[in-house]
Amino acid sequence: MKILGIESTAHTLGVSVIKFNGKTPDPDNTRVLSNVVEKYPSTEEGYIPRKLADHHAKLFRPTLDKALLQSKTNAGELNAIAYSQGPGIGHCLHAGYIAAKSLSEFLGVPLVPVNHAVAHVEVTRFFTRAQNPLVVYVSGGNSQIFALEEGKYRVFGETLDIGVGNLLDHVGRLLELEPPDAVGVIKMAAEGKKLLPLPYTVKGMSFAFSGMLTSLKKMNLRTKQEKADACLSAQETAFSMLVEAAERCLCHTRNPEVVLCGGNARNKRLQQMLSLMSQEQGARFCVAADEYNGDNAAMIAVTGLQMLCANVVPSNALPQQRIRIESQKIKW
Ligand code: MG
User: What's the pLDDT score for residue 42?
Assistant: First the structure.
């Protein structure tokens, strides 16, 4: 069977086709045939929801065509449409929903609403074969630490204000980097030489990042070296907080694996720090290839496939801006 995945929760529009041939999905019987991603460019004005939704609506047809062409698939061969139901930006979610709903009705195939956060975890568990991991999920809007408990994810710790990706994007804009986002921060951090004192806020297994931003704003950083030091400091301080909270949690849960996922999981420094901690705690460190960590539609298709095979497709397919990870039964 072939499944089409659609991702549109924030600034990324994605369309993917996967093929499955078997009874229980695993990396040997499931192949990603295409995983096309169209990103709205990051600008100094940040992301305006209406503009993001316009971008997704305008580019949906060419992106769909590209995903079908790359996977050598005719629309009539598709057996289900999986789409990202939330959490995310309302305008963007609706653009994806309308596309997915129209396609599923036109083709007469099921519409599978997929929790975006669950998909970030599941695509990593799927490809790394992690059975029972402690999950560190880091992206623009989310930063959470959780693990499976009685067939659902239980959140042990999370950001008390903004996501770590959002923090780094803000730092990029504040320091007017190129590009003005987390990518600019990572590039600039490589030239940093000293650590600036920044608020380090860990409360049990939760954490807060916005104090760092306020502190950086007050520093009035001007020279290139000052900015590089600020990037290095923001990165090191934020990641240390995440790793401390994750280690505290792991000592409590003793999961055999640690999964790092979400857009910021592509950061090599964070991978290094978390992998070292996992090793010291005797857990296997698991991270997916970069293409599956940034928002993408293959993760939606893979999770939709798991949900179909486990018979846990929710009846309400409408977009849900604030849906939590605990709402999805994990039966695979
Ligand atoms: Mg995401």
Answer: 78
